[in-house]
Amino acid sequence: MTPTPVHPPANSVYADLDAVIRAQVDTIVDRVAAGANWKVRKKSLLDVLTALEALATMPQESREALFRRLAELDGRAPADPPADDEAEAADADTGVGAPRPEALVLFYAGAVLERLEETQITGPEQALMYTLSIHPEHGQSVIDWMNADIRNAKSLKKTMKADRTYRALMRTIDRAVADAPDGVEEAQA
Length: 189
Known about the structure:
Elements: E1 4-5, H1 19-33, H2 38-57, H3 60-73, H4 84-94, H5 101-116, E2 120-121, H6 124-130, H7 136-148, H8 150-162, H9 164-179, H10 184-188
Antiparallel strand pairs: 1-2
Helix pairs in contact: 1-2, 1-5, 2-5, 2-6, 5-9, 6-8, 7-8
């Protein structure tokens, strides 16, 4: 297989994160980077992305109950949930509701890959992860890698077909793009 360069993102998603989310991304980066190769790294990153997707698709009441229970287990007093009117008002003020599952997958994949600061795509498992990035430059890097050698494209296709976890994440993303209002899919691409 022929390695090709990873195009660095023009706009960082990591740089603008608040300290709490940046620490989460750094923890994920450490976990992924600890893998001996991209077969191991792929599994680590897919496990995290699948958990994020599950959390995002969880009903709001269940998610709040989970966070309260985690706070109790951590020895912290759980925060009182806001009244429905307060929560709706906060969402209306910020224009932000619960993140869409596919947005979390793309965002965290992009932030983690950005922080890994890799310079080349060398194999299909690595290329597979770059297809999940929110950064268009990462997507272009995968296209360049596939175009560099027909064996690259064949191995990526084979890896995509063989990985059930990846296919499940892609179904979530594909459904979201299909359900998106006109113009949104171009902004996500």
